[in-house]
Amino acid sequence: MLVKRSSFVVVTFVMMITLLVLTDDSILSGVITFTVIMVGYIIISIKRSKKRLGLLNEKCDPEAFLERTEKQMEITGKNAKLQAYLNVDKAAALVCMGEYQEGKNLLLSIDKSKLSTKNGTLLVFTINLICCLYELGEIAEAEGIFERELFNITLDSVPITKAPFKRAIKFLNAERDYILGKYEESQTAFEELLNEKSDKRTHVSALYGLAKIHEKLGEVEKAKEMYKEVSEEGNKLYIAKVAKRKVEEMD
Question: What total of structural domains would you count in the chain?
Fold first, then answer.
C-alpha cells in the first residue's frame, strides 16, 4: 500500500510539472493537481475500506478483519471520529469471534457523540451492542436499548433504506424473536434473509439461526444438515466452530 501511495504522489507531481509547462499557469496547474490528489485518495480509501470489510463479510475471517482494522487505526491517527468508526468495526470483529464481553466493553468505551445516524455508524453500534447483551444473557438491558433507542435511531438514519442496513435490522429482529421464544416469527425472518441476495456472512448467520430453531424444535436432522453447512462455509466465524461441535454431538 505504501508503494502504491508513493507511486500516486510521484505521478501527481509529474502531472503538475507537465501542466505547468503546457499551461504556464501555476494556479490552474495547482488546482487541477490538488483535485486529482483528493479524488485519488478518496478512491484509494474506498477501495481499501471495501477490501477490509470483505475480509469479514465475504471471507468470514474476523481475525484478519480485526488485524486490518487495527492497522487502519494506526494510519488514521488521532482523528477521534474515524477512530470511533473503526472501533465499531473492531467490536464487530470481536462479536464474530465470540468475544461478546470484550466486544461489549469496547462498544461502551466509544464516545457515541462521534457516531452518526447519517452514515449508519450509530445504527451499527446499537445493533452490535444489543447482540452482545443477548449473547451474554443480559436480556432486560438489551430489550431496554431495543425499545428506547433503536426505533428512534432507525427513524433518523439515512442509510436505513440501503440493503445491508435493512438486512442488519431484520437479522436483529430474527435473533430477538428467537431469544424471546417466538420461533415461528424468527424462522420466517431467517428464511427471508437466507433467500435474499446478501454477503456470505449474513447467509451463514441466517443458516445458523435456522439450525438453532430446528434443534430447539427437536428437528435434529434438519438442524444437523444446516450446522454442517455453517461449519463448512463459516471459515473462522465463531458460529462455525459452534456448528462443528454441534454436528459432532449429533453424530
Answer: 3
DSSP state of 102: H
Same domain for 137 and 222, yes or no, is no
Q: How far is CA 218 from CA 127, 215, 243, in A?
A: 29, 5, 16
Per-residue pLDDT of 50-95, as tens digits, reads 899 999 999 999 999 999 999 999 988 889 999 999 999 999 999 9
The Cα–Cα gap between 124 and 111 comes to 14
Q: Where are the alpha helices (DSSP H) in 58-162?
A: 62-76, 80-96, 100-109, 121-135, 139-145, 151-156
Same domain, 112 and 153: yes
Identify the domain containing residue 241 by its residue range.
162-251
One domain, residues 208 and 190: yes
Give the model confidence (pLDDT) of 133-159 as tens digits.
Answer: 999 999 999 999 999 998 888 777 666
112, 132, 159 - which closes a domain = 159
What is the reported pTM? 0.83
